[in-house]
Design a protein that fits this description.
mainly alpha; Arc Repressor Mutant, subunit A; Tetracycline Repressor, domain 2; 2 domains; 9 helices
Length: 219
């Protein structure tokens, strides 16, 4: 395994470590630490195991992170930032609200049920009582961007008279729960679901949602 030396780095003419190199080493440490936390859980992940995974000494880790808690928070917060939302959220909207919702739902579900997404959700759920601030951060950074975008989409279509949703924010939250909830719970429980089933699940949720939201012609 490549050794990660946090103490030294190429230096600029001013005599300071190059920022890019320092950031690269920091992210490598956090990514490897996260793997240990995801594999072992917070309790099972010792500083010794993390140091071995990183290829650094415990002393070196402690020089940069006060304790295991600080390292856990930093590693999980970085993962949440990476996990927050995939690129492309703002470029998939079309005039066809059904297909736009399918595209958004498909993207969100694929992200949540990815191997990293599932493992991250497990550790967040398991440690929410110990680190409530991290769970709140995950909601703020991981879920809210999609909620905001979806609420804005629903608000625009409501203004055009195509749908009636009351509160766009509440409707967005309900829609995402419909799309993600069932498949995510199944996989968390150890079940299996293939790509075709995921696609049908998204389309069914969209049809069900729009059945209650679309404006019906007057009789």
């Amino acid at each position: 395994m490549q050794q990660v030396d946090l103490r030294s780095a190429p230096r600029s003419r001013a005599g300071r470590p190059a920022k890019a190199e320092a950031e690269q080493r920091r992210t490598l440490v956090l990514d490897r630490a996260l793997e240990v936390f995801l594999e072992r859980g917070y309790e099972g992940a010792t500083v010794e195991l993390i140091a071995a995974a990183v290829g650094a000494s415990k002393r070196t880790l402690y020089a940069h992170y006060e304790d295991k808690t600080a390292l856990f928070k930093a590693a999980v917060e970085r993962a949440i930032e990476l996990y927050a939302e995939p690129e492309g959220l703002t470029i998939i909207e079309s005039d066809d609200i059904e297909e736009t919702l399918v595209a958004l739902g498909r993207m969100r579900l694929a992200h949540v049920v990815s191997p990293v997404g599932m493992r991250l959700q497990r550790i967040l759920n398991a440690e929410a009582y110990r680190f409530p601030e991290i769970f709140e951060w995950a909601i703020e950074r991981g879920s809210r961007p999609m909620n905001i975008l979806l609420a804005a989409l629903l608000r625009r279509h409501a203004a055009l008279g195509r749908i009636e949703v009351g509160s766009p924010e509440r409707a967005a939250a309900v829609f995402l729960s419909m799309v993600v909830g069932g498949p995510a719970r199944l996989l968390q429980a150890g079940g299996r679901i293939d790509e075709a089933e995921l696609e049908e699940s998204v389309r069914f949720a969209v049809r069900l949602f729009l059945r209650g939201a679309l404006v019906r012609p007057a009789p």
